[in-house]
Amino acid sequence: xxxxxxxxxxxxxxxxxxxxxxxxxxxxxxxxxxxxxxxxxxxxxxxxxxxxxxxxxxxxxxxxxxxxxxxxxxxxxxxxxxxxxxxxxxxxxxxxxxxxxxxxxxxxxxxxxxxxxxxxxxxxxxxxxxxxxxxxxxxxxxxxxxxxxxxxxxxxxxxxxxxxxxxxxxxxxxxxxxxxxxxxxxxxxxx
Length: 191
Hints:
The longest helix is centred in the N-terminal third of the chain and has 27 residues, at 2-28. By secondary structure, the chain is mainly alpha-helical. The chain is built from 10 helices and no strands. The chain has a single domain, classed as Tetracycline Repressor, domain 2 (Orthogonal Bundle), CATH 1.10.357.10.
């Protein structure tokens, strides 16, 4: 019985760490978020953080998973008559959380290595995003896409990811507007 209580406390502590890390990164940005700062917020040592996550990369990967859980990435894109609406909503939301966008972009580059803790996260997340956008394009009879839905979904993902990098360098870049115009150009409304 005591083991179950210890396990539950461990799960609760892990969740507390993730919530605190989300807050610190969202507020201060990836570059300014240290293990020490996150640990202090939770009331543990940096070594205790690594007890729960193994490495800073694993912690930050789980922070992205938690962000997806909070933001409800999939529900925004699922079952929409117009997939443009869901994708643009996600992009607009990302502009409100620059620290998390920076974390996402930096980990995405590192996750190219199949041994990186975030590698499977990015593969799975990318597939979910593309599948949701492609399914929306399949369902949307009001548009006439120039590309098949799967290719279009991949192009939109590539553009959105690239625009995030441009936006981090120049915050005046209107990511949502550019993607909206691209969708309208590649999948215009039927007359």
